[in-house]
Amino acid sequence: MDAADLAEPVSPLRTDDAAVAALRVLAVSGLPGVVVQAGHAYVVIPASQVLRVALPRYVLDDPALGRVWDESTADQLASELVGRSVADLVAALDRHQLGTSHVVDRDATVVQLAAVMAAAHLPLVAVVDHGALLGVVTANRLIRYLLT
Amino acid sequence: MDAADLAEPVSPLRTDDAAVAALRVLAVSGLPGVVVQAGHAYVVIPASQVLRVALPRYVLDDPALGRVWDESTADQLASELVGRSVADLVAALDRHQLGTSHVVDRDATVVQLAAVMAAAHLPLVAVVDHGALLGVVTANRLIRYLLT
Description:
The structure is a homodimer.
Chain A: H1 3-6, E1 13-14, H2 19-29, E2 33-38, E3 41-46, H3 57-61, H4 74-81, H5 86-91, H6 95-98, E4 103-105, H7 110-120, E5 124-129, E6 132-138, H8 139-147
Parallel strand pairs in A: 1-2, 4-5
Antiparallel strand pairs in A: 2-3, 5-6
């Protein structure tokens, strides 16, 4: 059993797609993250990080301050995303997450999959074959396989 | 709309539960993480981190080395979990994740929910009412709400 066997197909987003397209893909797919094709590379944006670009720095540093943000409503959060691109979502990832690979080769082992997920805090990993995206393996899928 | 409105019920794990119980809850619930009750506190273990305790340090530092781990099979990974407890899974979380709150109050705003998710890399947040667990809000649930 290798990464290719566990992968499920996804359509990657492009960096010039609108940021809200990433939210729609998450809502429709039910997957815990999206894959972005950035040139010849693939980057995963976890669902937990897709709203990062919409949040002021002081709220990320101390989430309790989200309460005192004057317009801490859903409308306000959504409006912060207007005019942003998927590239902006990628750029807003934290340095540790951006500095770690989000990709494994098609013949990667379950240990490599688990390690990439754990090291980069990714709920899913992109699986590639000679640079082409085969699909993704989610953490839940890997865990279900381990229990069988 | 506040955190309590968006929360879905879950049963928390206890720290003395077997580690494999966390994997089973993930497999059955389909949720992207589990909630652990640790004394009067609640901690979230993301699905991406539940196998962390089973991985050697050098593989976490460089996932590509997972390939050269002699027995990089599913059986080996699963056997590393035998005898481990949920407390061991919590202890294996990285320092940043353990040092950040995983909980919001029932009247937390959507901005606070998004900030806790983004800051602590959590695919779900625990919602409490005077210390009692009301449920969880997943990142996907929050995003679906924002799109409505």
